[in-house]
Automatic annotation (TrEMBL):
InterPro entries: E3A/B/C-like (IPR044611), HECT_dom (IPR000569), Hect_E3_ubiquitin_ligase (IPR035983). The keyword Ligase applies. PANTHER family: HECT-TYPE E3 UBIQUITIN TRANSFERASE, UBIQUITIN-PROTEIN LIGASE E3C. GO terms for molecular function: ligase activity; ubiquitin protein ligase activity. Residues 406-746 form the HECT domain. This is Probable E3 ubiquitin-protein ligase HECTD2. Pathway: Protein modification; protein ubiquitination. Pfam families: HECT (PF00632). The lineage of its organism: Eukaryota, Metazoa, Chordata, Craniata, Vertebrata. The keyword Ribonucleoprotein does not apply.
Length: 746
């Protein structure tokens, strides 16, 4: 028996599929043989004995799951082409099944006590024998069509009870379920799928048996069929999936991730068909995973964290090959994980961005060298770097002048020199420059940014000015930080990073608006929670809005002591806010505050960032991930730092080292941050965690009577003298970390 071909003229999703040999799935064939031997009435000649991959020419091109490369567009039936809005095919009549949750639980209890599993076996083998039987058992009302995205019609409680009990049943019961699933997958499909078919797919995806690698061949074919559904069918599955409970939802996601990991790096390769014979396994699983990612993004807050979709196994494959394939072939028939960036961890994305940055740095430096030689000029090492020379007393103006004058060198490796100081920049001076510059620019007296105490974050000042070049400088600083793998202590709200990726690639047409994104009250509450609360109260107010609030579509802002008014729409000062138009008023108000009133400031900031970080790798990032790349993580885990620390001249059991960690682990959070800043030049934790700091403690052999700890921030190294006791170590350490600014040479 063969899986029926999915008729389509388009190509297969994974390039290079080959027709499978008839007996290639030996594990599966043996498995079916075992089932047939155990099943009563083995005379059934129609029982399938092996599963064969259909001919490549008959395999449908797996359709796109979402509309853009970052897989976050909402799938809407209104946006589907006309041909996808086909009439709903009639549902075939379902068998009548009356077993309830209580009846099933009673059967299970009787089977456990008596050892007679026949009623349970009969229920499982009948229920999973076909898609119709699955619907007959688990559909809430067999007489209702349930053709809407709002209600799948699945009796979730019954499904959960049946699946929870399944793994505690005898092996012949479990095998009968798998054989029934095979029968369903082998059904000859004619015409479009019905909603009952989609319900069956939704139920089968939750089967816990698919956690076992012995079932992966069946699981792969289930995933293949789901991935090959039309976009309209995917639309229903996405909306139905978001109704699954959090625990079950995460189990399905984890199962899919495990399937991909074990196909990439099988613990027992002999359990699976050769990779060349099943290149469609991973693309199919990833496409189905994309459905769950889309479902997760439709809920606010999401069902599970976006990080739960990360597959850390991908950290160990050739990511740059994936990235280059994606750059060359885009979203064509050639599969790449970069088409589905939600599955790539932030650590892996950082590697892609760093290597892409390094390649750009090398390319720019090589071009500078070639230009120098072609003009018959003597090359020098400085031409390979972005050399920034600044005075501490004129930090902002000098930095702005240097970056403006050396705009063509922004993609070279950064080196900083403080005028009048002997420090050599091996990384430490660069960190110091970033820290001091950010601290000065974000000071309230500087007027570029407003600090909101309620939300503990900065936002762009809406004051109008003649020159927005300093906002471009801040954007360039953020870009340089990402480009040079430096973490910054910047407190922007998440909305800022969403705007920074709008769009992720700078448009060629300079008249195109940048930094404009859809904003809601949820975005405003992260910046101005009190105002957001007031607007939320307006939306829920049950009285007469027009008479009680007496507001119009006009807002007022104070600029340099002068109150200025702005209309939210034409003639807004003459349009009253009423119960009918208050939603429009709130939306326009939020859009004004977060988009329009700061457009020129943010546009300069946007162009500054992208002048350094112009890369297709940004298409892989979520706004939250950009924030982590820029700022690192503010959560310190000193115990993790202790575990990953290396020692030079000390052993981790030495008394001085034990004193050190006793003192540090007892520090307040503020002192711990000071220590981290003292030793590394930043108080933020990089993307890979504390282990990525490569922190080292070295023994200093100088006299300890006056010697304070010394740090080499270029190498994240702390030189610690062998103090006589814990009290002296604590005293000297606090003095050292609390009075550290500037550099010198020993």
């Amino acid at each position: 028996d063969r899986l029926p071909p999915i008729q389509s003229a388009s190509r297969a999703a994974a390039g290079g599929l080959e027709r499978g040999a008839k007996n290639q799935f030996t594990t599966f064939s043996n498995f079916i043989t075992t089932i047939n031997q155990k099943k009563e009435g083995t005379g059934n000649k129609n029982s399938p004995t092996q599963l064969v991959i259909p001919n490549i020419k008959n395999v449908r091109d797996l359709p796109p799951i979402c509309l853009d490369v970052r897989q976050k567009q909402r799938i809407s039936i209104d946006t589907l082409p006309q041909e996808l809005k086909a009439p709903v095919p009639p549902e075939p009549s379902l068998p009548i099944r009356t077993k309830t949750v209580k009846d099933f639980q009673d059967d299970m209890e009787k089977a456990k006590s008596s050892g007679d599993w026949k009623p349970v076996h009969d229920f499982y083998s009948t229920t999973f024998d076909s898609f119709l039987e699955i619907n007959a058992a688990f559909k809430k009302d067999t007489n209702s069509p349930f053709n809407t995205i709002e209600d799948s019609g699945i009796n979730a409680k019954f499904v959960n009870v049946v699946y929870d009990a399944l793994l505690n049943t005898p092996q012949d019961v479990q095998k009968s379920v798998l054989k029934g699933i095979i029968n369903g997958l082998l059904q000859e499909w004619k015409g479009p799928r019905t909603k009952d078919d989609l319900r069956a797919y939704c139920i089968l995806l939750q089967n816990p048996q698919f956690s076992n690698t012995s079932t992966y061949v069946i699981y792969a074919h289930l995933l293949r069929q789901i991935a090959a559904l039309t976009e309209a069918d995917h639309h229903f599955l996405v909306h139905w999936s978001k109704k699954i409970s959090q625990r079950r939802f995460k189990q399905v996601v984890d199962r899919l991730l495990q399937f991909i990991s074990l196909r990439l790096f099988p613990a027992k390769p002999e359990e699976f068909p050769p990779m060349m014979k099943c290149t469609w396994w991973i693309p199919s699983a990833t496409k189905v995973l994309a459905l769950f990612n889309a479902a997760n993004s439709l809920i606010s807050p999401p069902i599970i964290s976006y990080m739960d979709f990360y597959n850390s196994t991908l950290d160990h494959i050739d990511l740059m090959e994936e990235y280059h394939n994606w750059q060359c072939y885009g979203n064509s028939h050639r599969f790449s994980f970069c088409q589905y960036p939600f599955i790539i961890s932030i650590a892996a994305k950082k590697v892609i961005i760093q290597r892409d940055s390094e390649q750009q740095m090398i390319s720019i430096a090589r071009q500078s060298l070639v230009d120098k030689v072609s003009r018959r000029q003597k090359p020098d090492m400085n031409m390979l770097f972005l050399n920034v020379k600044v005075r501490r007393t004129h930090l902002v103006s000098d930095s702005l002048d240097e970056l403006t004058r050396k705009r063509a060198d922004l993609k070279k490796k950064l080196k900083v020199t403080f005028v009048g100081e002997a420090g050599l920049d091996m990384g430490g001076l660069t960190k110091e420059w970033f820290l001091l510059l950010i601290r000065q620019i974000f000071h309230p007296d500087y007027g570029m940014f407003t600090y909101h105490k309620d939300s503990h974050c900065h936002w762009f000042s809406s004051f109008k000015c003649d020159n927005y070049s300093e906002f471009r400088l801040v954007g360039a600083l953020m870009g340089l930080a990402v480009y040079n793998s430096i973490t910054l202590d910047i407190r922007f709200p998440p909305c800022c990073y969403k705007k920074l990726l709008s769009p992720p690639i700078v448009p060629c047409d300079h008249n195109t608006l940048v930094g404009i994104c859809d904003v809601t009250l949820d975005d405003l509450v992260q910046i101005m929670p009190e105002l957001a609360h007031g607007l939320s109260e307006l939306l829920s107010y049950e009285g007469n809005v027009e008479e009680d609030f007496y507001s119009t579509f006009q807002v007022f802002q104070e600029e340099f002591g002068v109150i200025k008014s702005y209309n939210l729409k034409p003639n807004g000062d003459k349009i009253p806010v009423t119960n009918q138009n208050r939603k429009e008023y709130v939306q326009l108000y939020v859009d004004f505050l977060l988009n329009k009133s700061i457009y020129k400031q943010f546009a300069a900031f946007y162009y500054g960032f992208h002048s350094v970080c112009a890369s297709y790798a940004l298409l892989l990032l979520r706004p939250e991930e950009v924030e982590i790349l820029v700022c690192g993580s503010p959560e310190l885990d000193m115990s993790a730092l202790q575990r990953s620390t290396q020692y030079e001249g000390y052993q981790k059991t030495d008394l001085t080292i034990r004193y050190f960690w006793d003192v540090v682990l007892g520090f307040s959070l503020d002192l711990q941050k000071k220590l981290l800043h003292f030793a590394t030049g930043s108080d933020r934790v990089p993307v890979g965690g504390m282990a990525d700091l490569n922190f080292k403690i070295s023994k200093s052999e100088t006299s300890t009577n006056w010697q304070l700890p010394v740090a080499h921030t270029c190498f994240n190294q702390l030189c610690l003298p062998p103090y006589k006791n814990k009290k002296e170590l604590k005293q000297k350490l606090i003095i050292g970390i609390s009075n550290a600014e500037g550099f010198g040479l020993e």
